[in-house]
Structure formats: C-alpha cells, structure tokens
Amino acid sequence: MTRRGILTGGTWCVDRNLLVDQWPAENGRADILDLVMNGGGSGCNLAIDIRKLDARMPVATICLVGDDADGHFLKAEAEENGVDTTDFMLIGEAMTDYTHAYSSKATGRRTHISYFGTSHLLTPDHFDFARSTHKYLHLGLPGIHRLMDAPFAGDANGWVTVLKKARTAGLKTNIELASIPGERLAALVRPCLPHLDLVVVNDAEIAGIAGIPVEGAVGTDPETCIRAAKIVLEMSAADLVVAHFPKGGVAVARDGSVTTKASVNVPPAATVGANGAGDAFAAGFLYGVHEGWSVERCLVLAHATAAASLRNISTTASVVPVAECLKLADQWGWRASLQ
Q1: CA dist 113 → 129, 131, 161, 280, 288 (Å)
Q2: Which of 42, 146, 277, 305 has the least C-beta neighbours within 10 A?
Q3: CATH code for the domain in which residue 21 is found
Q4: How far apart are CA 97 and CA 178, in angstroms?
Q5: Exposed, middle or buried: residue 246 (CB in 10 Å: 0-12, 13-18, 19+)?
Q6: Does 191 map to a domain?
Q7: DSSP code of 295?
Q8: Which residues are within 8 A (CB) of 117 and not within 5 positions of it... i.e. 6 or more apart?
Q9: How many domains does the chain contain in total?
C-alpha cells in the first residue's frame, strides 16, 4: 500500500477566543477587544492547518464530541475544511469540550480555561485503523482524557495502546501534548516513546519528559534544550525529536545530527494571539517530513506556519498555503540567533 496523508486523533473542542487588553489580576478586570469562536484541540488544529497548507493533502480525524450545538459546529468546521469525518463521532452521554482561550494584547500570551466532557469518554476502542491509508497518525492530548490516561489492556495507558495499534496497521506516529505539570507529563508520555516515530513538542514539554529544566537566564537555553531532546530520543523509537520555543527550534536525529533554526522575526504589531501557534509549528514540520524534506527545510516551514498563525486570535484562521507562509516569513525576516 502506498500511504499518503495525515490522520489526527484525540482532542476536538470549541475554542471561544477572546482578545483582552491585558490579563487581569485576581479580583480585577479586563476589556474584551475581540471574540471569535472556532475549533480547537490538537486533532482539530493540526487537521485544519494541514489542509490550509496543502488542500490536496488527504486528512482525516478520529474523535468524540457531544451530540450538541458545539459538536455539530465542530463537524461542520471539519467538513468545510475538507477533513474526512467518517470517524467523527457524536454522542449524547456528555457535552462537547470547550475552552475559553484568552489572548492578552499587552503581552501576546495566552491563558486557557477549559471544560472537558466527551474527551473523558474516549478510549482506544474508538480507534480503528483498518480502513486508513494515511501515512501518519497525529495523536493528542495526554493529560485531559480520563480513560485514555488510565492503564488499558495491559498497557501503561490508552495512548500506548492506540500508538501500538496504529504502527501495527502501518502508520507512522507522532504525539501532541497539553500544558500540564512536568511530572504528570513524564508519567504519561515516557511509556509512549517506544511507539513514536516522531516527537514534536515545545520547550516546557521536552523539559517535562526529559526531567531537566531548559530555562536559561533569559528564556529557553538552546543547548539545554538540545540535551533534553537527546535524552528523549534515547527513550524513544523516534527518528527525530524536535523542540520549539519562541526564538527558535532544535531537531535531534537518530544518526546524531543536530539541526537548529531561529524563528521568524514577527513584527510586534502583527502579533494578535499565540493560541494554536504550537499546533501550527507541528503542522508545518509534519507536512515537511511527510513530503520527504530535509530537517532544516522542515524547521523553516514549521516556523513560517507558526508565524502566520500569530496574525489572528483563533487557532487556524490565518494559516495559509505553504508558499504563502514561506513568502511571509521571508518578508518579515529571520532572527539572527536562537537566543
């Protein structure tokens, strides 16, 4: 079988994106400057980002949402963007997940306050790869799916079970992570590592998995980030471990090579919201890997896609085709270094 395309699995939620003038202190207040509702979660964001990068790329998803207004909104958004919804399941037992995603105009930082309903009912039994002809499975999010996070069928957790099923069916595997404490992240993700072909995470997540801090005197320390990525690579079956942070990204390969790339020098006035930027980075990198690009070229597209996504408070609205992302990045220019 010649495999092509990307299958996402796991979290779909409704994001109610709110741009506020500033993030208030407790018992304080802020002004809402803009409000946009759209899909969110790793399964949603990467699926739609990939379709926006290349409308010819086959993309499908496996997920569980509520048979409610939010669930139907998400399915319509998937279909509108050309995502195959054959395994987009709506159930009446719980409400669809949703997140109030706040972006501060003052700092560009994001704050998420979430409700989890249907995600807690997802199990490995919902994942059937028999019909899939896709090349990669992008799976997430450990830490917010109660049954998937628990031991399953003799495995450490349900994520392990799904990854094993996917690889047995012939798919390559990648995982997306949530913003949860490092100790919890390590407990859930380390058992998954022997069943992953690719790991693309941010600096806080690579630190949590590796068990070492990566913060330097001013922001993320690139050399420590590389060391953490090497630790994770040794724990895994992955060909590549990638870690990204605001000023750049590093990729450590199985052959021992290390590739680094500073990020796009996005003008401050162009930055509207960071919600979804990590998913956009992962989408750009995974697209390049799928197409057989060099690691450096994959990092370039990853940064360019993340930069494009910063122009809107929603997760996917400002992602554009590959050529347009690259053109935008070249227009804005690149940072001189990772620090």
Answers
A1: 32, 36, 29, 21, 32
A2: 146
A3: 3.40.1190.20
A4: 14
A5: middle
A6: yes
A7: H
A8: 66, 94, 95, 96, 97
A9: 1
- Across the beta sheet with 59-66, the strand order is 84-91, 59-66, 6-10, 136-140, 172-175, 198-202, 240-245, 248-253, 258-262
How many residues in total does the chain contain? 339
Do the domain assignments include residue 40? yes
For 186-224, what is each residue's pLDDT tens digit? 999 999 999 999 999 999 999 999 999 999 878 899 999
Average pLDDT on 53-71 reads 98
Tokens 């940064």 -> residue? 303
Asked, for residue 337, whether it belongs to a domain, the answer is: no
Q: Is the pLDDT confidence value at 77 over 80?
A: yes
What is the C-alpha to C-alpha distance for residues 168 and 264, in angstroms, rounded to an integer?
A: 38
The answer to whether 33 touches 1, Cβ cutoff 8 Å, is no
Q: Of 51-60, 154-163, 226-235, 270-279, which gets the smallest average pLDDT?
A: 270-279
Q: What 3-state class would DSSP assign to 264? A: strand
% of the chain beyond a pLDDT of 90: 91
Instruction: Please check the confidence at residue 270 and state whether its pLDDT lies above 80.
Output: yes
- Span 294-334, pLDDT tens digits: 999 999 999 999 999 999 988 999 999 999 999 999 999 99
Comparing C-alpha atoms, which of 76, 80, 38 is closest to residue 276? 38
What is the pLDDT at residue 35? 92
Range of the domain at 202: 6-332
**Could you give the 3-state DSSP secondary structure of residue 186?**
helix
Residue 304 forms part of a structural domain: yes
Structure tokens at 208: 């949590």
pLDDT bracket for residue 108 (50, 70, 90): confident
DSSP 103: E
Helical residues (DSSP H) of 13-144, grouped into ranges: 42-53, 69-80
pLDDT at residue 274, as a whole number: 84
